[in-house]
Amino acid sequence: MSDKKNIAILLVDDEEINVQNVGHFLEHQGFLVTTATSGNEALGLLAQSHFDLVITDLKMGDVDGVQVMKSAKELHPEIEVIIVTGYATVNSAVDAMAQGAFYYLPKPIKLKELHTLVLRATEKTLLRREISRLKRRIEAQRGTTQFIGQNPAILALKDSIAHFAQLNCNVLITGETGTGKELVARTIYELSPRADKRFLPINCGAMSEELMVNELFGHEKDAYTDAGGQRNGLLESANGGVVLFDEIGEMALSMQVKLLRVLQEKKIIRVGGTKEIPIDVRLLAATNRDLKEEVEKGTFRQDLYYRLNVINLHIPPLRERKDDIPLLVNYFLAKFSQPNGTNKNVSPEALTRLQDYDYPGNARELENIIERSLAICDDSEIQAHHLPTDLCKSQPFHLPGIQTDRVNKSLEENEREYILSVLKSADGNKTKAAKIIGIDRVSLWRKLKKYEKNGVDVG
Questions:
Q1: Nearest partner of 248 among 309, 317, 192, judged by Cα
Q2: From CA 379, how far away is CA 386, in angstroms rounded?
Q3: pLDDT higher for 2 or 289?
Q4: What are the residues whose beta carbons fall under 8 Å from the beta carbon of 200, sequence distance 6 or more?
Q5: SS3 breakdown of the chain: % helix, strand, coil, rounded to 5?
Q6: Backbone torsion region of residue 149, taken as left when φ is above 0, otherwise alpha when ψ lies between -120 and 50, otherwise beta
Q7: Domain architecture of the chain: domains with CATH
Q8: Helix 16-28, helix 111-141: angle, nearest 10
Q9: Alpha-carbon distance 20 to 418, whole Å?
Q10: Beta strand extents in 377-452 (DSSP E only)
Q11: Which residues contact 103 (CB under 8 A, 6 or more apart)?
């Protein structure tokens, strides 16, 4: 049996005294217990958090225990559910077991019997998860979720991912927009001993500081106006798992202080609370910025940078590994051909055009080009004229009047030109542009506001 402190139980009963008594007993036994006093509240918790076992009352006013069980198993197929009720009849017991309950326990609850059932149920859940984890690990090692490419830099990156995935240290993943930083993070997670727990990506550029604090740390009941009941934060819900802070360079300085404290203390305090709650998460961070430069400018904390940069995995841009473009083209052709059953190739001339281009949007831009070309191609083979006009000119896309020699420009300048070029090609449609770039609309809006503040015309 794993450490009980890492076993999360959701306890559901509309009688608060029962929740308090049973919850106190299970916590005393060493389990991590979250409580809900209604079926609806339980559904919300199941949607946002990770649990190893659900113990639920059968008869409740809004949503009954069977509905809670069905939702739990839809969201987490490996989870076990113990149903408790004062309406102990043979028919209801048989019905609950037939629909997937691990066991049926009549009230009043015998705590010793409950403890035995909890141990048996969680052992079964954890065994299922271990089997799933081993299957995912085998698949990951075969390369099904790793980078496509045989370039020496990519082969070295794959070796590093496989090695550092087994450790428990923080990892900073760097690379330009579209290089696949989240893919690296997910592969680390899938190969790690934490693969049976939750992988939680958090976009630091998509939330205000106030919202991020509430989402990460949760809040106590009535912590602020409209707070409602107690709510566990995302870090608490990912206990035992892996958390990715994407676009970490966009995190506000005051929020960086809070994150640093979590890394140092391995504890959180909910908004409106005073109790320190221990958490065990492995932290990964990703950025397209030069954090050393941000530290020098005073926009990123040096102590946090050193905490995050225990291991640095850098993803080379696609223009530095053009020998991988044919492999990526074939992969994207297969990916987008599967839904409609078509099987198209790329002509030699079109492939040459694709290899001559520099891809400021990296692999994500190449993916978008192949998807678009397949959509407009009625032939059996993608020809050069099916590609975007700028590729057919054998030069990268650029805005009029803006220098396209990216060699002497900073990463930030290259990113800005790429984003503005995509926005222009999307006729100013921010939603469409954000989708092409691979970021959410809020992050795009923040970047454009920053450009405007620096005197750049964003159209």
A1: 309
A2: 10
A3: 289
A4: 234, 237, 238, 241, 242, 243, 244, 281
A5: 50, 15, 35
A6: left
A7: 4-134 (3.40.50.2300), 147-314 (3.40.50.300), 319-453 (1.10.8.60)
A8: 70
A9: 56
A10: 381-382
A11: 82, 83, 97, 117, 121
- Give the integer Cα–Cα distance in Å for 243 and 48: 14
List b or e across 236-273, with b for residues whose CB sees 16 or more CB atoms inside 10 angstroms: bbbbbbbbbbbbbbbbeeebbebbbebeeeeebbbbbb
Tens-place pLDDT, residues 193-206: 888 788 999 999 88
- The SS3 call for residue 57 is strand
Backbone angles phi, psi at 53, to 5 degrees: -160, 145
The mean pLDDT of 32-52, rounded to a whole number, is 87
CB 399 within 8 Å of CB 421: yes
Which residues have C-beta within 8 Å of that of residue 36, sequence separation ≥ 6? 10, 11, 12, 19, 42, 45
Tell me the whole-structure pTM to 2 decimals. 0.62
The two structure tokens encoding residue 418: 């790429």
Long-range contacts made by residues 373-381, C-beta under 8 angstroms, separation at least 24?
374/333, 374/336, 374/337, 374/342, 374/344, 377/344, 379/344, 380/344, 380/345, 381/344, 381/345, 381/346, 381/347
- The distance from CA 76 to its chain's CA centroid, rounded to whole angstroms, is 16
* Residue 88 token pair: 């102990």
Locate 17 and state its tokens.
Answer: 């005294």
Rounded to whole angstroms, the Cα distance separating 436 from 191 reads: 29
Rounded CA-CA distance 39/66 in Å is: 10
For residue 375, pLDDT beyond 50: yes
